[in-house]
Amino acid sequence: DAINDYLYDTYFKKLLPSSLIIDYHSAGIIPDNNYVHGIFVLRCNNNKLYERLKNRNYSEKKLQQIIQFENFQICLHEAREAFDESIVHELINETENDLKNNIEYLLKWIDRWPLNDSID
C-alpha cells in the first residue's frame, strides 16, 4: 500500500507524463489508472530460471516459490487482470539473444510511444 500511495501521490496524481519505468514482480503495486501505457512481463523456462536463481544463491524454498509462480504464470495473469490486456506485453528472456531482442523491442516501443512528443 505504501508503494502504491507513493506512486500515485508522486507521479500519477500530477496528471503529467513521468516517463517512469517500474521494475517489479507484481502489478499489484501499481495504481490502476490511465497513465500506465505499457506492462512488460519477462518469462523464462523453469529449468533455465532455476539455474539462474540457484547461481544467485537463492534458498531452495525461494527457488521453489519463484518456479511455481512462473509455472502458473502468476505475474502475467496479475498484469492482465490489473490492466487492459492491450498494454501487457509478454517477453521471453531465456538467452543473451532474447535479452538483445527484448531491449530492441523496448526501444522501438518507446520510440512509438505517443507521449514522446510532449516529453522534454
Automatic annotation (TrEMBL):
Pfam families: AAA_18 (PF13238). SUPFAM superfamilies: P-loop containing nucleoside triphosphate hydrolases (SSF52540). GO terms for cellular component: cytoplasm; nucleus. One of its GO terms (molecular function) is AMP kinase activity. Transmembrane segments: none annotated. It comes from the Eukaryota. GO terms for biological process: rRNA processing. Keywords: ATP-binding, Kinase, Nucleotide-binding, Ribosome biogenesis, rRNA processing, Transferase. InterPro entries: Adenyl_kinase_AK6 (IPR020618), P-loop_NTPase (IPR027417). PANTHER family: ADENYLATE KINASE ISOENZYME 6, POS9-ACTIVATING FACTOR FAP7-RELATED. This is Guanylate kinase.
